[in-house]
Specification:
The complex is a heterodimer of chains A (196) and B (102). Chain A is an all-alpha fold. Chain A is 76% helix and 0% strand. Chain A is built from seven helices and no strands. Chain B is globular and about 45 Å long. Chain B contains four helices and three strands, in the order H-E-H-H-E-E-H. Classes of the chains: A mainly alpha (196), B alpha+beta (102). At the A-B interface, helix 2 and helix 3 of A face helix 2 and helix 3 of B.
């Protein structure tokens, strides 16, 4: 094995390492400098793929673990608390804007549904509940990200030089919760690389 | 939930080549040469096929001083997958052998 292959094989963890070794073993039977050079060049892609797939596997193991679910659970409690706070604000004001009510309901539904999902309250309809959780989270992530971006842009040049951080914070709560929820509950085998 | 995605043209080319003689073990370079797929694409593809149980591999003992070579062939599950891929995307994938290969 060449020194380059040995170094690269050392950084690729087992069991992927055997593929680097297998690739190197073919080198001896290849005739022609150009073809050998081209073969060796492929090693960059092989090592990259091996490392990326290992990292993805490790990351998914971590993200799909209890820690991730616990973090999502805590964020859900935070969303419910924020939703209740907004609802109180809406009720206590004389003529509150309607979007305060909408946002409070979004936070309440997002947080309470996730709490119910994690605590397996919806286990009798688990498959439907899981799809609703993922679908809702995707929607919430898009809406929250858009809301946060709009808030950010509005605050760059605020009306009457008065920046509004409330809507931005709420959008961040919605998007952040949705992102954690997606990472925690997307099945590991759903996403595949396009190579196969 | 596992989303089934139809295999790429390169994957189909490898599957078809291996399915031509399923019992025969093939070397990596032979696969690359016969399908025209560069090694940087071929090996990740083989890794994925092996991960999913479509491909089996073994080390070929060689003469002293030479590293053992890896051999590949389709498993029964891989044969079914190859047949299914061919049915879903009819029309043979024409292999593009590497330039100057024999």
């Amino acid at each position: 094995m060449s020194r380059g292959h040995r170094i690269l094989a050392a950084i690729v963890p087992s069991p992927r390492r055997q593929w680097v070794v297998a690739h190197e073993a073919e080198y001896d039977v290849i005739e022609g400098r150009w073809r050998r050079w081209r073969w060796t060049l492929g090693l960059v892609s092989i090592v990259g793929f091996a490392l990326a797939s290992q990292l993805r596997h490790d990351l998914r193991s971590f993200l799909g673990g209890a820690l991730m679910k616990a973090a999502t659970f805590m964020l859900s409690i935070l969303n419910v608390a924020a939703g209740v706070g907004l609802l109180v604000l809406y009720v206590s004001q004389s003529s509150p804007p309607a979007f305060v009510l909408v946002l409070s309901l979004v936070l309440l539904v997002q947080g309470s549904y996730t709490i119910a999902f994690i605590s397996k309250t919806l286990r009798s309809h688990q498959e439907v509940a899981r799809r609703a959780q993922l679908g809702g989270s995707m929607l919430a992530f898009v809406a929250g990200t858009v809301g946060f971006s709009v808030g950010l842009l509005a605050n760059i040049d605020p009306v009457n030089a008065d920046p509004e951080y409330g809507p931005m914070t709420i959008a961040l709560l919605i998007a952040g919760h949705a992102l954690f929820s997606l990472l925690a509950f997307i099945p590991p085998r759903t996403i595949k690389t396009p190579i196969l | 939930m596992t989303r089934q995605r139809s295999p790429s043209g390169q994957t189909r080319a490898v599957l078809e080549f291996l399915a031509d003689d399923p019992a025969r073990w093939r070397h990596g370079y032979e696969l690359s040469r016969e399908t025209g797929i560069a090694s940087g694409t071929l090996y990740p593809l083989l890794m994925r096929l092996a991960d999913r149980g479509y491909l089996e591999s073994r080390w070929e003992p060689t003469a002293a001083g030479r590293p053992p070579r890896h051999l590949y062939r389709l498993t029964a599950k891989g044969g079914q997958f190859a047949a299914q891929a061919a049915r879903n995307a009819p029309g043979r994938v024409v292999p593009r052998p590497l330039q100057g290969s024999t």
